[in-house]
Amino acid sequence: MGNDTTQTERDYHRKFAVDLFNFVWTLLDKPERTAEENDLMLHAAHASRYHWGEAGMAVNLTRGEWLVSRVYAVLKRPEPALYHARRCLEICQQNGIGDFDLAFAYEALARASAIAGQHAEREQYLALAREAAEHIAEQDDKDLLLSDLATMPG
Questions:
Q1: Residues 82 and 134 in one domain
Q2: Is 86 found in the same domain as 43?
Q3: Is the dihedral of CA 63, 53, 97, 123 positive or negative?
Q4: How far apart, in whole angstroms, are the C-alpha atoms of residue 26 and residue 35?
Q5: How far apart are CA 90 and CA 62, in angstroms?
Q6: Is residue 119 domain-resident?
Q7: pLDDT per residue over 96-115, tens digit each?
Q8: Whole-angstrom Cα distance, residue 105 to residue 68?
Q9: What range does the domain containing 22 cover?
């Protein structure tokens, strides 16, 4: 985040980041999407991450990277899914972020590995996600992670 950014600009960036994040979820939740909706979903995920980069903290950046990775995984694009999942984990590690976010970084790596056909890595990251789940403070967050892990592609 640039030092030149005013509080008002950060507020706008934060609003755009949140709105775009939520919009991406409306598209992810659709049972069927058109090619245009898939493109829109991908662009919106990247735009959300961009806006978090202008206004957010490290935890927001990791969540933005997670979302971009998830979209690529849903679109069956393993290379960018893996890249953004790795960025998600790196941001967690560099900033001492644990709990829910660390567990979901491992989830993203497991999911991206699964669609890349990297079965050993999928299993490794699934195990790390389950281990990290034991350290999630809020039961609702833990339940969300475990239900997400249950949707992991083989």
A1: yes
A2: no
A3: positive
A4: 15
A5: 8
A6: yes
A7: 999 999 999 999 999 999 99
A8: 12
A9: 1-56
Residue 25: how many CB atoms within 10 A of its CB? 15
Q: Do 143 and 83 belong together in one domain?
A: yes
Phi/psi of residue 117, nearest 5 degrees: 75, 20
| pLDDT tens string 26-63 | 999 999 999 999 999 999 999 999 999 999 899 999 99
Amino acid (one-letter) located at 27: L
Question: What's the pTM value of the predicted model, to 2 decimals?
Answer: 0.93
At 119, which amino acid appears?
H
Q: Is 32 exposed, middle or buried (0-12, 13-18, 19+ CB in 10 A)?
A: exposed
Do residues 49 and 85 both lie within one domain?
no
Cα distance between residue 58 and residue 129, in whole Å: 20
